[in-house]
Design a protein that fits this description.
By secondary structure, this protein is an all-alpha fold. Helices cover 68% and strands 0% of the residues.
Length: 372
């Protein structure tokens, strides 16, 4: 190839003006696309800014709602605190003033005496029950009574009688001290004489055995009842003396001197029921006067036409699922089970079952080739 053919001038050369116009148009197209990209980018930025502003307003509104709810809760709590301080606090102050009054102190002292008797007398009776057998054995042994005799049976009543004397002295002393009186030394002698006699009879009933220590052990075991009863009686007397020596009226204000003002209860508004409006009944309506009218002459009634009986057509039987599957297979032998199921609105398992039955029936009905 020669150089002349290489640098051969093309057959058609565009003018400079046409080329300049084409290039300018291309540049304008590029500028338009870039301007569109800038506008799209600015539109996206403005959209995101607007969404952020909406989110900020929503957060500010939620924060304002939370603050209003918190303010409402704190206001309700403050109102409850003020109500409690105004009413419950006043009642607590009045209760404290009443509790430190002389009357309440006297009631508490009396309560101590009552609790001492209620708790001590049953304990005294329990120890007496344990001591009853020992006293009866001591009476029988000292008197040489035979089992089943009257004296033997009377021995069982010895300890209950002794403990009853002790209980009467204890209760009587407590009642007298609560009323400003007291017992003298004679009641103390009778009380401790009964307890000592019970202890001696228990020792006599339990003192048996070959050796001294064996007899002493049996006697001490029998003496648990009278010793416990004596200790219980002593404790009851001690607490009763404490209650008698108490001075609840000394250095204590009286209720009349406290000038207490009981808080008034919260008034409950009465429920007023409006009286029912009187019911005014309308005046009775007189019965209408019926004037007899002559009966009209009978008019001939034409006979009704004979009814037209239409023939009832038997209802058309709807094809079963098996018939529909067989018909679809006959129309489209190459269709799959899924396609037939989608076309008929049935499940694929139903189509497979009916296809298998149709194939079995066709194979059974077709005669063999050699028989033909």
């Amino acid at each position: 190839m020669s150089l002349v053919s290489i640098y051969k001038r093309p057959a058609r050369v565009e003018s400079a003006e046409t080329l300049r116009a084409g290039l300018k148009e291309a540049r304008e197209v590029i500028d338009v696309r870039r301007e569109d990209a800038r506008e799209r980018r600015a539109q996206d930025v403005n959209h995101r800014v607007a969404l952020a502003a909406v989110d900020e307003r929503a957060a500010a509104a939620a924060r304002a709602r939370r603050e209003r709810a918190r303010d409402a809760d704190e206001t309700a709590a403050l109102a409850e605190l003020y109500r409690r301080a105004a009413r419950s606090g006043a009642r607590a102050r009045v209760r404290a003033d009443i509790e430190r009054s002389a009357e309440m102190r006297a009631l508490r002292v009396a309560r101590v005496r009552q609790v001492t008797l209620l708790a001590g007398i049953p304990v005294l009776a329990a120890f007496a029950a344990w001591s009853t057998t020992g006293v009866q054995a001591g009476v029988v042994r000292l008197l040489g009574l035979e089992a089943g005799t009257a004296g033997w049976w009377a021995g069982w009543a010895m300890e209950p009688a002794l403990i009853t004397v002790v209980a009467l002295i204890i209760i009587g002393r407590a009642v007298l001290r609560s009323a400003g009186g007291d017992t003298d030394w004679r009641a103390d002698v009778a009380e401790w004489a009964a307890l000592s006699l019970s202890l001696a009879l228990n020792l006599a009933g339990g003192w048996h055995g070959n050796g001294f220590w064996t007899a002493l052990g049996g006697g001490l075991a029998h003496s648990v009842g009278p010793i416990g009863a004596a200790g219980t009686a002593f404790l009851i007397g001690v607490f009763d003396s404490y209650a008698a020596n108490a001075r609840p009226w000394d250095n204590a204000p009286r209720l009349a001197d406290l000038n207490l003002t009981i808080p008034a209860p919260v008034p409950v508004p009465p429920v007023h029921s409006e009286p029912a409006a009187p019911v005014t009944l309308p005046p009775p309506v007189p019965p209408p006067v019926v004037t007899p009218t002559p009966a009209p002459e009978p008019t001939p009634v034409p006979a009704p036409p004979a009814p037209v009986v239409k023939a009832v057509r038997p209802a058309k039987r709807q094809p079963s699922a098996a018939d529909r599957v067989v018909a679809a297979i006959a129309r489209s032998p190459k269709a799959s089970d899924a396609q037939i199921a989608a076309r008929l609105g049935l499940s694929e398992a139903t189509v497979k079952r009916h296809r298998r039955h149709a194939v079995d029936s066709v194979s059974t009905d077709t005669p063999p080739a050699d028989a033909a």
